[in-house]
Amino acid sequence: MKYMDMCRKTNGTVSTIKNERGGLQTKTLKFIAAAGLVLTVAVAFAFKDKILAAFNPISVVATITGTNLKETDGRTNVLILGSDRRVTGAESGRPTLTDTILVASIGKVDKDVVLISLPRDLWVKDPNGYSSKINAVYALSKEGEGANNLRAVLQDVLGIPIHYHVMVSFDLFQEIIDILGGVEVTVDTAFTDYAYPIENMENNRCGRTEEEIKKMEEEGKSDLEIYFCRYEEIVFNQGTQTMDGETALKFVRSRHGNNNEGTDFARSRRQQKIITAIKNKSLSIQTLVNPTKLKNLYDAYAQNTDTDIDFGAVNSFYLLSQQINFDRVVSVVLDDSSSAEEGGLLYHPVDSTLYNGAYVLIPQTGDYVQIHAFVQRYLFGGK
């Protein structure tokens, strides 16, 4: 079995798909085709409907060649990835990790949407035979192969085909929320994270010499004690509140919160909360009738997303959107703590020597059969 360093970068760069720039209407349609999918495919459908109504580009829609969405057994499945870097433009670079991994499945028959979140620590094997955490597959792939390799892995894990993918930088969440003027979020569980990393401070010695740092390490001091200046304390109180982009980004990225909010699964649930909040604000009339906001939303999307969703699929998404009830989106998270009926199909092995000493999660049954059955139940009834 081959193993890969889960933090190694390959070739130092990432291939990106350049976005065509056209008029405002063309930009709006392309934004709907992919940006909405970034915020969950459900948003894309409804968002497109209302934006089209606002701009009324009937002649443009009429010229779009109807292209059926790719689907299998009546469902279209989209892989949504969140990375920590811009994915287009001058500031782009190969993403180190895809810490958000979400599959959105849209039923063309039942007109339903199911969102499946996968933990970044899931141990998998990629098409090249290398084993790593699932969040490292994209970065460890050869240039131009990351998305396809990760799609293949997800198909193996979930037992369903992946028809499209969207890669989004975390910067997009912050920019979109600020453009929208903030979003309303309900914090279910209050928590404090005493070690939230401060951007661009990861190499700061906090005024200590190498000798001082070495001595503190020998004394068993924690990173937080040694490098105190690299971290800040963030607090989220229980209840409904309005978050700006920076606050919302901290809310979804926090990994060391107390009250059981430091788990990968709690983080996934918080991410879905922000997605829902963005959807609600995006679909408000104040946004949909504001051309400046729409253009700014597109510009943010263009700099922060990479997708294989083609322009011709827009019309098919639009037609499907007329029949979907977006208030009935089902969200599930694969984890190691819930009951099997709720997605608790993974576990953390005590012996980590087989996994380079890393914290990982693997299927309870040793294969993906149980996960396949779980996914089938959610997608095809019996939830």
TrEMBL record:
Q: Where are the transmembrane segments?
A: 28-47
Record keywords, A-Z: Membrane, Transmembrane, Transmembrane helix
Q: Which Pfam families match?
A: LytR_cpsA_psr (PF03816)
Q: Which residue range or ranges hold the Cell envelope-related transcriptional attenuator domain?
A: 98-282
Which domain of life does the protein's organism represent? Bacteria
Q: Which family, according to UniProt?
A: Belongs to the LytR/CpsA/Psr (LCP) family.
Q: What is this protein called?
A: Cell envelope-related transcriptional attenuator
